[in-house]
Amino acid sequence: MVLLIAYSIALIYLYIKNQLVGSVVAMHFLMVLLITIIVPTSGQRSENQWHLYSEKLYSMPWYTWNTKNCNTLLLMMAKSKNDIIWSIINKTAINYDLLVGIWKIFYFFINALLKSKKFF
User: Fold this and answer.
1) Which of 3, 10, 40, 105 has the fewest C-beta atoms under 10 angstroms from its C-beta?
2) How far is the first Cα of the chain from the last one, in angstroms, to the nearest whole number?
3) DSSP 3-state assignment of 114?
4) Which residues contact 92 (CB under 8 A, 6 or more apart)?
5) Model-level pTM greater than 0.70?
6) What would the DSSP string read from start to end of 76-96?
7) In a structure prediction context, what are the per-residue pLDDT tens digits for the chain, which is 120 residues long?
8) How far apart are CA 17 and CA 65, in angstroms?
């Protein structure tokens, strides 16, 4: 994700220096936008489904089952206690919070580049 942001900033810089055509920059930004939306959304959906799975295990009527099935359920509950989270560098979870953070950084750099356009 950090590489995508750096790539986008480099494209903006080249566009400001009049070394790139606007349509090329727009196409690359569309690609970056789609990647930074699809990946965190998939991670968030995975977290949500794992949480629903854990809740379903805890709401099952285990008290009507035989001992073998109860033991299997207890084993499944113990294994599903910790959510499965997609993570990247330093165990940063790939979810909506990451998406918001990426776009805040991206917005900051674009504004900084556009404000300093007169210095290029």
Assistant:
1) 3
2) 26
3) helix
4) 98
5) no
6) HHHHTSSPP--B-GGG-B-SH
7) 566 667 777 777 777 777 767 667 677 777 777 777 787 888 888 888 888 888 888 888 888 889 998 898 888 888 777 766 766 666 677 777 877 887 888 788 777 777 776 555
8) 71
